Automatic annotation (TrEMBL):
Residues 5-250 form the Thiolase N-terminal domain. Residues 259-380 form the Thiolase C-terminal domain. This is Acetyl-CoA C-acetyltransferase. InterPro entries: Thiolase, Thiolase-like, Thiolase_C, Thiolase_CS, Thiolase_N. The active site is at C89 (acyl-thioester intermediate), H337 (proton acceptor), C367 (proton acceptor). One of its GO terms (molecular function) is acetyl-CoA C-acetyltransferase activity. The lineage of its organism: Bacteria, Bacillati, Actinomycetota, Actinomycetes, Streptosporangiales. It comes from the Bacteria. The keyword Acyltransferase applies.
Amino acid sequence: MAEAYIVGAVRTPVGRKQGGLSGVHPADLAAHTLRALVDRTGVDPSAVEDVIMGCVMQFGPQSMDIARTAWLSAGLPEDVAGVTIDRQCGSSQQAVHFAAQGVLSGTQDLVVAAGVESMSVVPMGSHVTTALEKGLPSPFGDGWAERYGRQEISQFRGAELMCEKWDLSREELERFAVESHRRALEAVAEGRFRDQIVPVAGVENDEGPRADTTPEKLATLKTLREGGRITAATSSQISDGSGALLIASERAVREYGLTPRARVVTLTLTGDDPVYMLTAPIPATRKALARAGLSVDDIDVFEVNEAFAPVPLAWLREIGADPERVNPNGGAIALGHPLGATGAILMTKLLHELERTGGWYGLQTMCEGGGQANVTVIERL
């Protein structure tokens, strides 16, 4: 049976909005990561068969197939192709899936899975608002309206709907946010991210974690929606960043003298209610565990993207995982969520945490626009 191995995983620091990475062109940001991946693995870049890169706002400086632009900007061989994909927040986790599937199918041996997003340069939703300003239709046509009605579809509404469905209080959300920052700050202080981060533009550490985060301070913030429970502090941070992984077959490992660091165990996708939008990680995790023949107790580390605090909190209630194993080094509330890059960044964090702690199995999942979720299970080698 064919296997797909992760042989390299690197990321940039995650920069705050208009922070230290905001002056770097997105293609150059991704190029920096790609070059580091090649250098650290020692792979012959001409042997790479495709570069699959997640990016959500494929607009302006992130348009024109940034995967190809970034590879060439890194000074890497012209004969390697690249493709840019959009599965919303899960775009670069999907890049990992596509790369692994190419290897598992036997049609490819070496594939780069990557992601990039500069939300400082290309604001979230700018491609949609620009189209609307030009008089173009919204992304939701008549067929959608017939099925779901002319109601608001947004991640912010979805987060509030989750709070209502799972009866999550504002205080519970804020306790979770404070803990995310505490864990992230502890990880930074102990140097847990040092080996996975490629410094860029003078930035060496993630810029998001805040030492002054307290329940008392968060309680003073306004909610994002009148009468709601979600605030900016219980939402993921707007950020800039990039991540990249190298996926290899057994043949490539032998031929190029690569060292497998993890084996891809299973790859699953699930859709759920697109109005709630953020709930799909729950059924997706159940599906992935069943397919892998594993129980929740078999997983040593979980990365559940903190798009909003109710996402991992509802997931925890339904899945029953040990909270200490979930986002042990903090999540997007503290560290940031550069949309199309986050999937690759989380997988890089997951792999390094398994190596640091000696754990065997890791599971990553993310909520995504349209009510979708990817789940990837890996086994450390």
